[in-house]
Design goal:
9 helices, D-amino Acid Aminotransferase, Chain A, domain 1, 9-stranded mixed sheet, about 325 residues, D-amino Acid Aminotransferase, Chain A, domain 2, alpha+beta, about 25% strand, 6-stranded antiparallel sheet, 2 domains, about 30% helix
């Protein structure tokens, strides 16, 4: 049975613990501008063509390797096919991961939950720095770290790869996924290295040219997106999100928002709630908070970023390093 949900008033209250920066005004613009300025330095100092060779670099247990190295590729794929693995995916600029310590804690938590065991958590920070600098220099990209069992089976090994940051659209378009979310899995909340429903949903997202797809379960309840947690602003102004217990990944961005404001309510969200929403917001640790302004080719709300989307994006930017 769904929990009763308290309603927040339309006029949002101040945050319980106000950050130093003004999340609604000039500071928000300055914070994003400062980050963009740092990222643009890479384009000026390191043309993309000069870095194509380093895109084959990977990282394995404390050292940089090439994708052609015998220790990666087939040996790691064999491990992945035998046991579940877990991952964390970070936005890295000049070797520094946004929300780095959240990524460390998430990977350690999921590794323990999967029975893989513990690892030296400082290696996660090393991987972000070493591989991020090797591939992106002072620029920005995405580093994905996976925890796998060691080949001997008596410990954990960490493997990191990269991908370009890609599209940074301020407003997103989404579709409802044709496949159903399967519901809670064996490892609740964990971000797994391979999961069929997400892979299928992402393939559908790419085929339709969308930024995201929304996954509902067989009861018609919203669960999550293919790469994000979903927040819905109802017509009464309340900010809501589905219960993680429905089977969603316990995302880092969602956890930061829950920790820093009491104005987010866990609620059952059905298709009608989504269709009538004032705002739909997707959140993850790489992109921050992005408004969905078109869903299934229909305009959402005003068709532009709403006040909650702007506020939450600023909140996630000012939470870096916490």
């Amino acid at each position: 049975m769904d929990r009763a949900v308290a309603r927040a008033p339309r006029i949002a209250r101040l945050q319980d613990r106000p950050p130093a920066a003004d999340l609604h005004g000039r500071d928000r613009a300055r914070i994003r501008s400062d980050r963009k300025a740092i990222e643009r330095q890479h384009d000026d100092a390191n043309p993309v063509a000069s870095r194509l060779g380093s895109m084959t670099a990977q990282w394995l247990d404390g050292r940089l390797v090439d994708e052609s190295d015998a220790v990666v590729g087939a040996p790691l794929e064999a491990l992945r096919s035998s046991v579940p693995t877990c991952i964390t995916t970070a936005r890295v600029t000049a070797g520094e991961a946004l929300h780095a310590h959240h990524h460390v804690r998430r990977l350690a938590r999921d590794s323990a939950a999967l029975g893989l065991g513990a690892f030296d958590e400082s290696l996660v920070i090393d991987a972000f720095k070493q591989l991020g600098e090797a591939v992106f220099g002072i620029g920005t990209g995405v580093v994905r770290i996976e925890a796998l069992p060691s080949h001997s089976g008596d410990g954990v090994q960490l493997h990191a790869t990269t991908r370009p940051l890609g599209d940074e659209s301020n407003c997103w378009a989404a579709r409802t996924a044709p496949m159903l979310h399967p519901g809670p899995q064996a490892f609740p909340g964990a971000k797994l290295g391979h999961c069929t429903v997400y892979e299928d949903a992402r393939a559908y997202k790419r085929s339709t040219g969308m930024n995201e797809v929304l996954l509902f379960n067989s009861a018609g309840r919203l669960v999550e997106g293919s790469v994000s947690n979903i927040l819905v602003v109802r017509q009464d102004g309340s900010l809501t999100t589905p219960d993680i217990a429905l089977g969603a990944v316990a995302g880092i961005a969602l956890k930061i928002i829950q920790d820093r404001t009491s104005e987010l309510f866990v609620s059952a969200i059905d298709r009608g709630d989504v269709e009538s929403a004032d705002e739909i917001i997707v959140v993850n640790a790489v992109r921050g908070a992005r408004p969905v302004v078109h869903l299934d080719d229909k305009q959402v709300g005003s068709g532009a970023a709403g006040p909650w989307a702007r506020r939450l994006d600023a909140l996630l930017l000012t939470s870096a390093g916490r």
